[in-house]
Design goal:
By secondary structure, this protein is mostly helical. It is 80% helix and 0% strand. It contains 15 helices and no strands. The longest helix has 32 residues. InterPro entries: Na+/solute_symporter_sf, Put_Na-Bile_cotransptr. This is Sodium bile acid symporter family protein.
């Protein structure tokens, strides 16, 4: 039986079910400690598998295209935060202070890897450059995101310094990734053959973090603080941010003389935000009472970027020269 097109994808439905479960049956006490330990282990395993999966040859193939990578990184770590700060007078009346904090945090996150590459390939763009840009964004995000959060939102952090937060994030994300790269020579082929396992760990770790985050936030009265008006305002803000960054990336890349394939990679890599990296980082950086509200803008943005990019990739592909082969 085919899936109705009007339904969200399985992962989005799973996130909605997870939020509902955390709202109705939040984990507390010793159960919360167990869930937290399992979640940390799942996140470490996720980044270990990402390290084992990422081909160094693919990165080298695109790394010389430095102008493209620089523009993507500027969109990710400069344009997004500037928009989050510059639009503050417009944003604050629409959402609660904790939700605005989540919007700022969203603006400081790295780009996605898998979906950026997938959409670039579907749109017949420069796939090797997209692999390099998205991977570089994720690795730099381990350093850049805690630094930006420490500079712009230090009052709302958990109490540790940005250096302490970086050490925790590096321990949980960077070290497993490096271990995966080291182990790639032995397990890389197996990981490539068993992509379903990576996808299961990827989605499962996010769902675990979402459940523990919302369980703690529900205990702090999250749904008494977030109204329907705030949720509607949050969705509008996500639409505005995504639209502005995509428009700016497209215009700048055209003005700077990039090829069509490069422009596609820039738009998709420069406008995306990583849920897989963002949710574990939020758990390290922010106190439990604000954690649920902080990750809520990212969860909405994640689904929005997938839907918009899917439509945009189809438009790019349909406008490409039929005689021109897609880049590998």
């Amino acid at each position: 039986m085919s899936r109705p097109k009007y339904l969200p994808d399985h992962f989005t439905l799973a996130m909605l079910v997870t939020v509902a479960a955390a709202s109705l049956f939040p984990c507390t006490g010793q159960a919360a400690v167990v869930f937290d330990n399992v979640t940390q282990a799942a996140v470490c395993l996720l980044f270990f598998l990402h390290g084992a999966k990422l081909s160094r040859e693919a990165v080298v193939a695109g790394i010389t295209h430095w102008r493209l990578h620089l523009l993507v990184l500027l969109c990710t770590f400069a344009l997004f935060p500037l928009l989050g700060l510059g639009l503050r007078p417009l944003l604050e009346p629409l959402v609660t202070p904790d939700l605005y904090l989540g919007i700022l945090f969203l603006c400081m996150l790295p780009s996605t890897v898998q979906s950026s590459i997938a959409f670039t390939a579907a749109a017949r763009g420069n796939v090797p450059a997209a692999i390099c840009s998205a991977s570089a964004s994720n690795l730099l995000g381990i350093f850049m995101t805690p630094l930006l959060v420490g500079l712009l939102t230090s009052a709302q952090m958990q109490g540790g310094s940005s250096l302490e937060s970086f050490v925790q994030i590096a321990t949980q994300l960077l070290l497993p990734f490096i271990a995966g790269q080291v182990a790639r020579r032995w397990i890389g082929a197996w990981v490539e053959r068993n992509k379903a396992i990576t996808r299961l760990v990827d989605q499962g770790s996010i769902l675990l973090v979402v459940y523990t985050a919302f369980s703690e936030a529900v205990g702090q009265g999250l749904w008494h603080q977030v109204s329907g008006r705030s949720l509607a305002g949050l969705l509008l803000i996500d639409v505005i941010l995504l639209g502005l960054v995509m428009f700016t990336a497209a215009k700048l890349s055209r003005k700077l003389g990039f090829s069509r394939e490069d422009r596609i990679a820039i738009v998709f890599c420069g406008s995306k935000k990583s849920l897989a990296s963002g949710v574990p980082m939020a758990k390290v950086l922010f106190a439990g009472g604000t954690l649920g509200a902080v990750v809520l803008p990212l969860m909405l943005f994640h689904q929005l970027q997938l839907m918009v990019c899917a439509v945009l990739a189809q438009r790019y592909a349909s406008s490409a020269d039929p005689a021109e082969p897609a880049k590998p």
